[in-house]
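step: validate -> pass
step: tokenize input -> pass
step: predict -> running
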Amino acid sequence: MLNKPVTFFFDHDLHPDTTRLCFLQEFAANGARHMVLSDGLLGMMLAQYRRKKAFVQELASFGMTFLDAHALFGAELDLNCPFPEARAEMLHKHIACFGICAELGVRTITFHVGSWFTINGVRTSVADHVDRIRASLDVLLPEAQKCGLTIAMENIWAPGTTPDVLLEIKKHYPGDELGFCFDSGHANLLAARIDDDRSVVFRDWRKDGFPAVKWEDQALEKMLPHLVNCHLSDNNGFTDQHLNLGRGNVDFSRIAALLKQAPRLQCVQAEIPIRWQEDGNGTSVRGVIEAMQAFVEQ
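step: predict -> pass
step: emit ->
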């Protein structure tokens, strides 16, 4: 059994008050105790201070709390932000978010390191990409430590976001202030080895000018020693669908067995949006919670 708390993703910021409260009631009634402080919600709290207090009170009324967070992300907000004029504002926003996380009791915040390789028509190298990430971390890590936060770098599927690149960055920060967040859906895309346009990995690597994809089927094993969080969702190996566990071809039995060996793991997150779809791939609150319960009980 994986004896770690489970957090649940929900787009609080996209729902009107009545609908949001109904969803939160369903999460609580089905046993959820922790929600994710999402990037959308962090952005809203930055812009509207009063909403922060309101959301915390809502969760408390249902017996739930925030436990982990996802940092703001996008081309001008990722750690490798390639635009000099935007970097100062990017760092300022993240530091402000650290304060919100500390106030709400959050202990891990997951970052996208960034996937930008072509800037104003000029392609940069992986080494330049890593240098920009390190320059950001040099500023952000001390501020995160002041707030009791561990920064977790997330594996994605672009050339600069593979486990090998994350490990190269981690070498420069041997302490516990920096860790990893394993994303099962992203890892599945890199392990699928689909060498044609059906694969988002194949398309993105070719777009960035890389002659061949460096496929990876040992992502979790490589990240395991530094893992502090993980994002769990399923997909078909072609695109990042964020399906409920068991709806795609991710081997969650293998993942569950490996996670039991992760020395720094603090929690696991169901990064699965609640949605309805005509094709039957929609998800319900109860369905997600039951799938996660089955996962941690393996």
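step: describe -> The radius of gyration is 19 Å.
step: cleanup -> pass
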